[in-house]
Amino acid sequence: MIYIALLRGINVGGKNKIDMKLLKQTFEQVGMNDVVTYINTGNIIFSSKSSNKNELSLILEEAIHGDFGLPIKVIVRSFNDVSRIIQAIPDDWRNDKDMKSDVMFLWDEIDDESILKELVIKPIDTVKYVPGAILWSVDKENITKSGMTKIIGSKLYKQVTVRNVNTARKIYELMHGQNN
User: Fold this and answer.
1) What is residue 11's predicted lDDT score, i.e. its pLDDT?
2) Average pLDDT of the segment spanning 41-54
3) Class assignment of domain 83-164?
4) Can you tell me the mean pLDDT for 19-47?
5) Higher pLDDT, residue 178 or 101
6) Residue 179 to residues 83, 118, 133, 173: CA-CA distances in angstroms?
7) Distance of alpha carbon 29 from its chain centroid, rounded?
8) Domain ranges for the chain
9) Which residues contact 110 (CB under 8 A, 6 or more apart)?
């Protein structure tokens, strides 16, 4: 099966620095195959015979802690999981000079539509739940007025890892290439 490992909080603001070549080696040493990294923010596509995503997450978290001494949370999603999320993103959403659009991948413990009740959603925000993620978009001119910026620093924020839609689409494209 093809998977993506989404690491939370690496190579951000000079903290939790991990070299992607070394990270790739870590994945290979614990039995992951066809390992491909995408940008420095912790997106690792790989294949595994295991179908247990929780088990894979634990193996990878332990390996990262062992090799780098960092307690990094890892979300593992299958190609089908990511496909469902990508298909739910409206075609006109983008991350550019005019629009900010993100995918907030959810930890399993909070992966439920009821999570939307914990968010501050203002009329300028477009927010959707899809199993595994919250999708959010706002015009860049309104970003400082957006309710979604309130998530930063919250308890909920520690249970998500965020990728902009451009990155999420590229991850899907790379996974799709390995899936064929």
Assistant:
1) 67
2) 92
3) alpha beta
4) 94
5) 101
6) 11, 36, 22, 10
7) 23
8) 2-80, 83-164
9) 156, 159, 160
